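Exercise (ungraded).
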Amino acid sequence: MSTLEIKDLHVSVDTEQGAKQILRGVNLVIKQGETHAIMGPNGSGKSTLAYAIAGHPKYHVTSGSILLDGEEMTTLSVDARARAGLFLAMQYPVEIPGVTVTNFLRTAKTAIDGSAPPIRTWIKDVKSSMTALRMDSTFAERNVNEGFSGGEKKRNEILQLELLKPKFAVLDETDSGLDVDALKIVSEGVNRAKSNTDLGVLLITHYNRILRYITPDFVHVFVAGQVAESGGPELAVQLENEGYDEYVKASAAAAAAIASAEAADAASGVAAVAAGSPAVNA
Amino acid sequence: MTSPASTNTTAPESESVSAAAAAAFATPPATSGGHRGAPVGSKSHTDGAWQEIPVQTRSERFTSANVGDFDEPSGHEIEWKLTPIKLVADLISGDLDGTVVEPTAEAVDGYSLSWVSRTDERVSSAGLPEEKASANAWSAFDKALAIDVTGETPTEFIVKRSGLGSDTARAAHTVITAEPNSRGLVILENSGDARITENVEIVVREGAHLTVVSVQEWNDSAVHLASHFAQVGRDASLRHIVVSLGGSVVRVNPSIHLSGQGSNTEAYGLYFADSGQHLEQRVYIDHEAENSRSRVKYKGALQGEGAHSVWVGDVLIRQSANGTDSYEENRNLVLSEGTRADSIPNLEIETGNILGAGHASSTGRFDDEQLFYLQSRGISEEEARRLVVRGFLAEIIQQIGSEAVEERLSRAVEAELMIAAAGAAPAAASDAIADDTDATVTA
């Protein structure tokens, strides 16, 4: 049984004005097989959490830990984290011209497993996952995400999730922009991965629409870069009825404190860059 | 003329001139071009710095087969200003060895190979030099290598040149002739040492479909200047592909004249400039006849300090070329700091009655978001770079039509990338230069 543990995570992001503090002490423990929904208003830092876990070079962990079965992830490269068992389904998957889906999937699978997948079973697996996600077989020969519709891109993310079989997946607003049919198809894919590989899921969403199809074990309300409240699935229902206002107001005092802290951070952020922070992305 | 490129990747900047819009610029008859006429110039007529008003229209450039008709270039001339001429001065105006060097070629049905004299009717059938290095070669070659394509079933013919030596400045001349309705694929493979300036004439007679591929995999110190002249006849088609990977200074300039009604050309190019390499290609598409069609696509990768590529794409749509359909584009992928990519598309339109004419040029650095996406799937940074660059250049390699050569060149491109991984640091901000578009309409 694997565990993904996020401890007192502080993350800043590069902006044109310098480093900006986004996450201010996030604590979460996700066990394999569990589904945790992270809900919160825009700008609360949900996507920052997703990118920080995956290791995007624009996001800098200033303190805290991301531990996968006790192993520190924050010092690993992006690809090493993926090979350790982390997966990020992206909100805006990028196009990779000239690289076909087939070639990409095989290369990724080989990298994750450390050896090329046996060709016969691999082709069968790809085909059956594509069929289940209602992806036309011509997808395989198209270039990754090139000319894909929004829904096709999201299905392509879930296809990778099913085939690469990570231990933990972060779904960054996978539901955004999907019509109800596509939402069902994508959700079924996530549920298949959960039952097939005992996947642990960190499901980031703005709306609880997707929670009708993917049942969370825990719901966390994310406000101003922190978990403001945690509960069971009933919390999502409450959020649907009442919105985030209460939490935003409740943290108004905190927000003021944060604002002043931000000013201090900005100053120290500049100092950190000047000191030659190695992860600064040109 | 140059401006700093966006540091983002390939946001295409394209423009097209619709037939209707171009009609507004319809012009009175222009003086006809002299590219096949007898040399009429004198020294004072040479294009470039010696004239008060430089020649603007490509068709009016001075042409001559005689090296003495050209002034010594200063480096400011339009055709030389982006070339390191000091490194090729001997090829431009020095004494050249014009003796024949036997190529290696396995006999294939439908192709014949022979050495012919300067007075053979095939010589001067496709064009004449527009600059001094080309004229120097033309003046100096002893015999021309004639490749005749007569077969009507598609096969491939590979002509290999290697070991031309680095001490002797050489001249060479090749004439490739595709007989009416023939089908052919001629691959010119260059490797080893060389200091050479040469001309390649290509005549595609009516109804013929010919592919000519020139592959430059020279040694690091090699210097190679080449002018290709092509005439494409009625309903004939020429696919022309330039692949430049190796060499110190490599400049291959194809001029393709669509002289027959319904003629068609596709001009492709692939280059991979490493540290200190200068790879240049100046493409000229001359739409002379009605209903002619052209597509130009050159793609290049640059990495390492001092890697320099030049692409100039001139398209001329003459008054006589009603119904022209033309598009040209150049894409550069910058993989490290310290590189320079010059990209200059030029479009001249003398008739408004065309189907379309457009161009696009972009120079961008390796996309960090693509890298992140691939890495987030477990793929290492080196492998991710290889995937993206291979994908970027595969589009050109796939046009060749010879499985064995495509496979070999794919591996050669990967080998270039391995050099990159070993040498250069990951891409940061680059000095990529993208020359902006100059679209001119001649009056």
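Further reading is listed at the end of the chapter. For now, observe: Confidence is low (pLDDT under 50) at residues 269-282 of chain A. The domain at 3-97+166-274 of chain A is CATH 3.40.50.300 (Rossmann fold).
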